[in-house]
Amino acid sequence: MNDSLRRFSINQMTVKQLSLPELVDACLELGVPGVGLWREPVRQYGVAAAAELVRGAGLAVTTLCRGGFLTAIDPGERARALDDNRAAVEEAATLGTDTLVLVSGGLPAGSKDLHGARERIADALAVLGPYAAEHGVRLAIEPLHPMFASDRCVVSTLTQALDLAERFPAEQVGVTVDTYHIWWDDQAPAQIARAGAQGRIHTFQLADWTTPLPEGVLNGRGQLGDGSVDMREWKGYVEAAGYTGPIEVELFNEALWARDGREVLTETARRFVEHAG
Amino acid sequence: MNDSLRRFSINQMTVKQLSLPELVDACLELGVPGVGLWREPVRQYGVAAAAELVRGAGLAVTTLCRGGFLTAIDPGERARALDDNRAAVEEAATLGTDTLVLVSGGLPAGSKDLHGARERIADALAVLGPYAAEHGVRLAIEPLHPMFASDRCVVSTLTQALDLAERFPAEQVGVTVDTYHIWWDDQAPAQIARAGAQGRIHTFQLADWTTPLPEGVLNGRGQLGDGSVDMREWKGYVEAAGYTGPIEVELFNEALWARDGREVLTETARRFVEHAG
């Protein structure tokens, strides 16, 4: 294995044009030691089969993305969300990863109550945290950029994520530190230190910030080095906070998806070494 | 004048399809007492002529938008930005408004240094603050939503705006409180209180948050009541902080611009009464 890629993990979404076996092959060929997996393609392939494929190749599964969407008010919807998150915990355990990333959910239709939505997330974590810990899985609340606050994730900052996580033991609930979502926030470095001191940095993900943002803003995550984020600066913050684990590159980007997946993986590994190695 | 519109001011950009005389006519007809003006259309009409037109109609000019763009590194570019902002101060004084809104500027090309950019804004304010005060004009730093941090405004939160403003007297530098930019931020209510206690709420603007965001995200500001923002809640925060001044509605929205301007103004006044009256 290429030592400069020792901490590199490719999030499956970055090269979603590759099937799971293609992704595994490409990782072996390039010396990529870890993958972050997504539930939908994994379930399509079969969770047990995916676990066997990845384990057989000696790849680490650094995270499973994603659980969450815990902000519903309707009791039936809430029960279904909890069931789905319990299933996600079981899938994570089967895949051999200790980290399930949570995208908490946006405002229910017609609601303007961010505080109430955040409290419903806490209520759900009180159920899911112990369940996850029983399965050897930690929940990693991901603050999403404030531009997603209404429709995807009412947890917009590391401060808010930690305010939630701290209500639970660190082995149950921590946070996802993703440069794309927090790079603009001058309070984030201190919050990374806070998270590290509590052992709550459960995963560290990289993407660059590029503009103009595309319509809907979801698929505008930039290749490392193409945008405004100093990857080494943020890597320095998490390292200073004691985090020495894998570093996932997670890009949602139509232009990258339109290209050959192996080529994108090769480029991403090279950019990782150049900007965060 | 309709008393429920007593504090309403229409930002010119909301109905940019109207010429300045058309805007003034429509305001008089509907009983709208104030307008927030923009430099480009005002200069096109002539600053002195615009001042006479608006004053003759008895309309208050609640703000002039906008100065700023103070983050350049290049000395020539910085000098030009200062000159341009001095001109904006003079235009504000001519128009009879005491408030010049500042959009601070994004990262210079190739730079990833948000902190440095914010410090260059402070350097510029040290020059422009006294100049503005001499002309009876206050500068109102507008934190823009974090999605604009790289390309438009490195000041992303009220906290950051106040950290900058506090280096100067309140009669020189304060902040713009705009619901669109801060609605997601659970620290904003406390920052509004901080701003109010210091007499630094220089203007209060409303727009709603609607999704999906359009490409480039600039022109997605929603009509009041169409989105996720509880206008009365935010009005309550600024009032509790002692702000009793005009409330501007500022929408950049392609769909509104495509409609008849008077109709949009009528609708906006109605929405103001319904959601913030």
From TrEMBL, chains A, B:
Claim: DNA-binding is one of the keywords in the record: no
GO molecular-function term, one example from the UniProt record: isomerase activity
SUPFAM superfamilies: Xylose isomerase-like (SSF51658)
Annotated Pfam families: AP_endonuc_2 (PF01261)
Signal peptide: none
Keyword annotations: Isomerase
Top-rank taxon: Bacteria
Domain Xylose isomerase-like TIM barrel: 24-267
Protein name: Sugar phosphate isomerase
